[in-house]
What we know:
Elements: E1 4-5, H1 25-42, H2 57-67, E2 85-90, E3 93-98, E4 111-112, E5 117-118, H3 120-124, H4 135-138, E6 140-141, E7 144-145, H5 146-151, H6 171-176, E8 192-194, E9 201-202, H7 220-230, H8 238-242, H9 250-263, H10 280-283, H11 290-297, H12 304-321, H13 326-346
Antiparallel strand pairs: 1-8, 2-3, 3-4, 4-5, 6-7, 8-9
Amino acid sequence: MRRALFPSSPENSIILSDSSEEESHSRIQEEDREGDEREEEEEEPDRGEEEGDRGDEEGRMAEDRDDSSYHGNRDVDTSMFEGSTLPVQCGSVVGILQKDRFASRTTGKCIRTEESWLTPTEFIRLNPDLRDGMWKRDITCRGQPLAYLLQRKILQVHSLLCLCPMCSHAQSDLEHQRNDDHCFICGERGELLCCDGCPRSFHRDCHLPPPPPGDEWLCTFCVLKKSQEWRYTGHMTQRQVLDSRISDCQLQCQYLLLFLLNADEQKIFSRDPCPDVPRYSSVVPRPMWLEKVRENLEGRYRLVGEFISDVRLIFKNCAVYNRTNPAFKEMGIQLSNLFETEFQSTFKI
Length: 349
């Protein structure tokens, strides 16, 4: 179902807890244990997988008791845990933990994988090699278990009385937790359209093509993935691809452009450089940027080769202008390499 997502402002994303800053670490761990026990007791039968492991309840409670004694390495530089998101893993399974979504082990879908948002308990279940997993021990971030992040108050378990959306079991709040809080293209919050096939969210003007009216909607990333599952296309040479009509390859070109817009996190290659970069137009005879490519893709290009040529021109211009600036030049090289790899894969060259 297509939904308009209105994330709360950062000011309202404060963790609610019965504990004050001065309360001891043992009180925080006790709240976590009590919260987990209460959550298990209050789960409804139709919650499926959440209730399926009741036979392991004793083991999970023992896990919490063991974790409460974790002291960690006091010499760890905690500055590497700053920021709104953190990389996490459980064995070979990797994800991104968003701090303001964390609530407890079973509430707050705070870990983003390629396919979905998950609670810590759901995340460790993705590891097929893990039996009787303990989320505080088995989920790690930069070499440290989540138990360490809890101890240092980098993460905090929410109070039993917390009424925030992350702790809510209301269907509307659970629906909102299934998708990103930020636009996948520009990274900003606001009124977002949520894809029904993946966790991505978009501003209406950021997505290609513009989302049509309707209750259900799949983003271009999902449409391309599904089309590749049923459509048989033999391998093509690069020359054949470049000579193809843009109208026959609109989906692939839109996907590649969205891929680049997302990968350009600092928006260095997305906007017109001429107004902000000194003497750019005098050094670069034909400036090009991703938003200009987007504009051209909506009606100017006739062949795929014209689209690819303009994208490559962006990185060629970057190398020319930044001959004495190796840092920016390297950024262009890295994004260019990402594009070429994705181009080859998308068109099966």
